[in-house]
Write the structure tokens for this entry.
Amino acid sequence: MDTVNWGIIGCGAVTELKSGPAFQKIENSNLVAVMRRDAVMAKDYARRHNVPLWYDDAQKLIDDPKVNAVYVATPPSSHARYAVMAMQAGKPVYVEKPMALNYKECREMIEVSGETGQKLFVAYYRRALPGFLKVKELIDSGKIGKVRYVNVRLNKPFAEGDLNPGKLQWRVDPAISGGGHFFDLASHTLDYLDYIFGPIVRANAIAKNQGKKYSAEDIVLANFEFESGVLGTGSWCFTSDPVAEDDTLEFIGEKGKIIYSTFNPVPIRLFTGNKEEVLTYSNPENIQYNLIRSIVEELTGKGMNCPSTGVSAARTSKILDEIVQEYYLNH
């Protein structure tokens, strides 16, 4: 195709700044239609973002001949259904993360992509952000020698918004999200580590619910091994005291270490010998811009290929499922 004319299914909060405006800024890309089940909200979004068409029915958006690519930005429980509908209608799909409710649904999406010949991309946009690419470059170039292991730490206090007036917030409702905040947040980190070190081939973990605020897991401790031989350890706690709040990615090598963050836009700290270097970078205004641009360039045949596909994203969903499997078998 010469121009990618996008339709968004699920124009919620993530599309307001992180992704939606990027579709209109990128060369050979337009945002032509949006859909939300609430017609008033769909119409309001279209008005505020200067989108010509709006729908309250996903099938109508998919069937619109003006739309030739679909971005699915709903909660994970409907990713597979809408993605399959779009691909079967002959349209490539960009899906929010996690890719689907579980690994089984991911495999079904990949199968339909193969059957229809329609491309499937997933919004693991850290694979295209400058800071994360710089860390990958430092590791790939041997700046800290062979990497021995990576240590992930994410501590966040309980958020009252998770129990939105008497109604479970969807990110901690396993029937909608697949799990708790671990699925929403750790998925970004694990996918990025897959990008650097290759697939995780083995993992063991303990997942528990210590805070008893909702049914999903709220703490996870995991050990894992990558195909490349690098080892990893991670701790994710979503009921910590604010004083313990932490978001650290630490790469330990034979000749140094790198300290970075998954969610905080902090400088990269590189330690080699007795020297510390602080490396800075700038993120795009719309955080998904670089990844969406790579999708547009791949679809139009005018540049790079997207680094985040259904195949790579499914590997992350597989590991998420494996890490919490024992918890959900017992609950």
